[in-house]
Fold each of these.
Amino acid sequence: MLRRFFLYLIGVGFGVIVSIFFFGDRDIEFSYLPNARTLKHLRGQSFQFSEMALCQLDCINMSQSSFEQIFYDTDLDVDFGGSDVSANCSRYLIEVTGQKFSKFNINDCDSTSTLLNIDLTGCKCL
């Protein structure tokens, strides 16, 4: 019985080594949960800014590239309760922590993600 267990462990170890040799250099992402799948989808499309979003970025003295860096590199949470995914073009409410703003809306239409607005107080953009 002990011999069988030992041979089993040798086989498993050999299998792991062969798997690492063949598949070790691949960039594998775990995106099976709804939040991760949505963010991966939005980040994989071309990105645009609405006029209101550009005005709001000016209000908080943030450039477009700074916002894109936050969008692509920061840990974000999609609020599915505050989002509207029933329309042809889905609108997602996304929450972020540790920034000058806490929430923003993104429109997902065709192959483009458009920043609609940023949840700010004291900014007069129409």
Amino acid sequence: MKKCMLFFLLFICVSLSATVQAKSGHNQAADPEITSLTPLIDYSESGFTKKVIFRGKEYMILLFAFKQGQQLTPHTIPIDAFVHVLEGTATVIIDGKEYTVQAGHKIVLPKDLPHGLTAYEDFKMLLVK
């Protein structure tokens, strides 16, 4: 009987401790923010738009939106970049070679190689660099 009572008291103490920690916020992981990305950036008739949505220690994540026909002129960057297409279709040119990408596709833009883009239709992408 004493062992049962001891286990019961131990259970109560652990339960109360967990309740106090939960109410005080200690030892609780922050709830992740769940967000749809496409509504976070709007199209512009005057040119493509871009928006930084996250900055890490050594990288950043950006959203881009291009109206049909808008372009990103060829340029180079000193690091590799990862692109995930969120909506639409575009031609990506890397070092003179054309690639057609559409919603759901990913493409890597290698560092120091010229790359550009032309939107076939309204086009949104996420870029990590």
Amino acid sequence: MESLYNSRNSWLTIDKVSQLVGVPKYTLRYWEQQFSDFLSPGRTNGGHRRFTGEDMKRIKQIKELLKDKGYSIRGAKKRLKTEDQTLKTEDIDYLAQKIALVLKNEFLG
């Protein structure tokens, strides 16, 4: 199986992302503009986009919402924002539980 990432830099070009996700490059550029709060690939000194694994996950989410589930761009943005807030809440809950456990062990032995 071909590696998804350049082993030196852990990034993908827009050509590779287009092939892997199955959407044209112009669509990826458009999504980058429309979903700038959720997707912002890095750039080389020459201005070429470089996508990470996290970018790929987000692109797949966007594709699923728009193409598979029929969301509008506005609806997809709302859904992504809600999902991000839910994840942050879950992270906070998890950390609070860990802190409580550490404090309990520290003070109650």
